[in-house]
Amino acid sequence: MSKKITVVGTGYVGLIAAIGFADFGNQVIGVDIDKEKVDKLNAGIPPIYEHGIHDYLERNLKSKRLRFSSDIASSIIESEVIFIGVGTPPKDNGDVDLSQVENVINEICKNLNDYKVIVTKSTVPVGTNKWIKEYIKEKTNSDNFDVVSNPEFLREGKAITDFFHPDRVIIGYESEKSKEILKDVYRSLYLVETPFVWCNYETAELIKYANNAFLATKITFINQIANLSETIGADVNEVAKALGMDGRINSKFLHAGPGYGGSCFPKDTKALVQIGAKYGVNMSLVKEVINSNELQKIRMVKKLENVLGDLKDKCIAVLGLAFKSETDDMRESPAISIINELIKNNCKIKAHDPKALNNAKKLFGDKIIYCKDSLEAVKDADALILVTEWNEYRSLDLNNIAKLVKQKIIIDTRNMLSPKKVKELGFIYEGVGRK
Questions:
Q1: Residue 84: strand pairing partners
Q2: How far apart are CA 302 and CA 413, in angstroms?
């Protein structure tokens, strides 16, 4: 049976959820305080670049199963299930800023006209869902509602695929009534026998943080192995390939590079350290992952310095600004740390990215030069540094680039290019974990 659902927040989490639940056959209202954003969404214009999102948005708007509104009060009143998908950014000390979640909860308290299931999709610290339940009960003097924790595990660039074909769905709940309603909401996934993990609030909350911290640890581990490989003459690609053949390890997230970034791993690892501190548990491994990851980003500039010497007044072409391919998201991207370090060294920076140039302009303003393509970026450059693993960079026209650059130097932070082919064209080549 389809449900009337409101999803508050139209960022990555909220927008994908709203589109997905509508595609499952539910009646969905996506809510955002940004009226201009709401108008664009109702016109079928997504605010983010994500593969496949435009077609799904258009289809569900056309079917009338999905609409967007800036009126949170009426949307809550109309709906039986309220998903919270607002931002939970980090504070300066690594704690989670829950102010947007609190604002939504206060709106729910003011408009609790009938039984509701309130579902947190936003990543929140352990104890948040229990607090939400107690807070609403105290404010409304009612227990005609249930709270559910349903963390998301979407990879940017593959978010649509991940929503419709998840490895598993995590549901933290307390009442059987809310469990049955969530089963209805996710009925399409039940029909294809997607695994569901039913647990208490605290377990669901911790699963999200543990999941991301483990993946961040795996990335940091292979980066440290890469750094050792460079020193002793090993090839990290071969090491990673052999590791990935071990069924206990598998090959995912064993790709050496400039460090992790994005909206989740940096924020969630820091939050997990703070959660541990709150409960008197020293998350020493996660602390080291955070520190090592920051050093890895700066190490990419040191590679450049080792080859080029003094960086002052050098022209550096930076290819790739998004934190990963298939997204325009630059949050915590290694490119930011690399560019800031180059700026400190008084470099001239010419940058290109297939999707993230507009976001880069918001970050760097006129401090760097923005180029329409990779060839414009490399013209007269003293060195080229590849930062994001876009497919178009895997097939760069190196013959043409060799004629355009001032010096033939490539720092390949993603190991995208063949060292043999690059060197045959007279380039000095530096990868990650390759001697």
A1: 8, 120
A2: 12
Contacts of 368 (CB under 8 A, 6+ apart): 318, 339, 343, 349, 350, 351, 360
What is d(CA 280, CA 284) in angstroms, rounded to the nearest whole number? 12
Residue with tokens 């003459």: 233
Between the CA of residue 434 and those of 230, 231, 404, what are the distances in Å?
A: 5, 9, 26
Q: Which residues contact 295 (CB under 8 A, 6 or more apart)?
A: none
Q: In 35-144, which ranges are E strands?
A: 66-69, 81-84, 116-120
For residue 270, pLDDT over 90 is answered with: yes
Confidence of residue 326 (pLDDT cuts 50, 70, 90): very high
- Would residue 264 show up in a list of annotated catalytic residues for this protein? yes
Bridge-based pairing of strands 383-386 and 409-412 is parallel
Nearest C-alpha neighbor of 61 from the set 15, 98, 93, 100: 15
Q: What is the pLDDT of residues 61-92, one digit of tens each?
A: 999 999 999 999 999 999 999 999 999 999 98
pTM for the full predicted model: 0.93
Angstrom distance (rounded) from CA 231 to CA 299: 14
CA 289 – CA 114 distance, rounded (Å): 46
Residue tagged active-site, from 109, 199, 264, 347: 264
Name the DSSP letter for residue 199: E
Whole-angstrom distance, CA of residue 352 vs CA of residue 116: 47
How far apart, in whole angstroms, are the C-alpha atoms of residue 293 and residue 224?
Answer: 9
Q: d(Cα 253, Cα 244) in Å, to the nearest integer?
A: 9
Task: Show the DSSP H helices in 323-390 as ranges.
Answer: 334-344, 357-364, 374-378
Residue 122 and residue 101 in contact, taking contact as beta carbons nearer than 8 Å: yes
**Average pLDDT over all residues of the chain:** 96
Encode pLDDT of 123-175 as tens digits. Answer: 999 999 999 999 999 999 999 999 999 999 999 889 999 999 999 999 999 99
